[in-house]
Amino acid sequence: QVQLVESGGGLVQPGGSLRLSCATSGFTVRSYPMSWYRQAPGKEREHVATTSRTGDITTYADSAKGRFTISRDNVNNMMYLQMNSLKPEDTAVYYCNANAWWGQGTQVTVSS
């Protein structure tokens, strides 16, 4: 059974940092690119960042460039999103994705 489980979300002040984690099981992680998406209230889900199968190629939404870093650990079946200089507009539920599989999401709230 495929599972993707996000963690690490929470409430943070503007300018702060969070590190999201995605724990995976039930599939061969190294076979797939993996991504982070987010969905803010009343908005469509949007792409945040993608890492290639080996992690050597990463792509980011313009909103994430320079502030977020995606990484993966294929040995331990994990993916991460380091988020720095957080802004209120980063508030959303963040989802882990691989192939057609999704996690349940983790809430990130940026507010003073």
Question: Can you tag this structure with a few keywords?
Answer:
globular, single chain, seven-stranded mixed beta sheet, four-stranded antiparallel beta sheet, 112 residues, mainly beta
The low-pLDDT segments are: none
Question: In whole angstroms, how far apart are the ends?
Answer: 40 Å
Shape: globular
Q: Report the β-strand fraction as a percent range.
A: over 45%
Mean pLDDT: 97
Structural classification: mainly beta
Helix-strand string? EEEEEEEEEEE
How much helix is in the residues?
under 10%
The main β sheet shows up as:
7 strands, mixed
Measured on Cα atoms, how large is the radius of gyration? 13 Å
The total beta strand count reads 11
Q: Give the count of helical stretches.
A: 0
Explain what you see.
The protein is globular and about 40 Å long. It has no helices and 11 strands. The strands form 2 sheets. Strands 2, 4, 5, 6, 9, 10 and 11 form a 7-stranded mixed beta sheet that branches. The protein has 112 residues and is an all-beta fold. The mean pLDDT is 97.
